[in-house]
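On to our target:
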Amino acid sequence: MSDFDVSRAVANLSLGLEHLSASFIVDAGDFSYAREPSWKWPNLTSLALTSRLLAPNKSPAEIGYMLQAAAAAAMEMPNLETMEIWNGQEGLAMVFRFQSARGGRPSTITLRGIWELDLRPPVIEAWEAVTLRHGGPGLVIAKELLGPGIVVKSHGTAIHYLRVSNMVIRPISLRQIWIEHRIRGAHNYGMMPVAS
């Protein structure tokens, strides 16, 4: 079964869900491109997926097409509160986070990472359409560039610095990843780990 087939199956199975987090299992692009025109997610409030396209060496056009496809899927998610598309590994961290309008405030897109991601006008227009469809008063885009002192050693540190939601990883699991990396680092330098 191809990655696209897996993504299509997960997208289809998610039609009745309220929450879906399928990081590293399903690529956001495949999830969105696999969507049938008739598919709707009436109950989905939160969605978290990864995308290998969120990297500084990838084509801005491809990133834009993927984010537009994600917006097209979001149009069929009337109760969507948060969608996170992220990528994290050694030396790489980026999240695209859409939060729908709440309490009269506009919807927001947050771009947080170790490199600057510029959204092209068609991407912004696609997400403005999502905001209008969901009855929001507008869309605000916030860019948060992580400082030069940030060192991303793994997907665990990427999750921490990107501040992805708890639906991506439970806090206890994130702590276990941090401990594992501390132990590995200590063994790599011939040191014993220090209990915390």
In short: The mean pLDDT is 83. The first helix runs from residue 3 to 13.
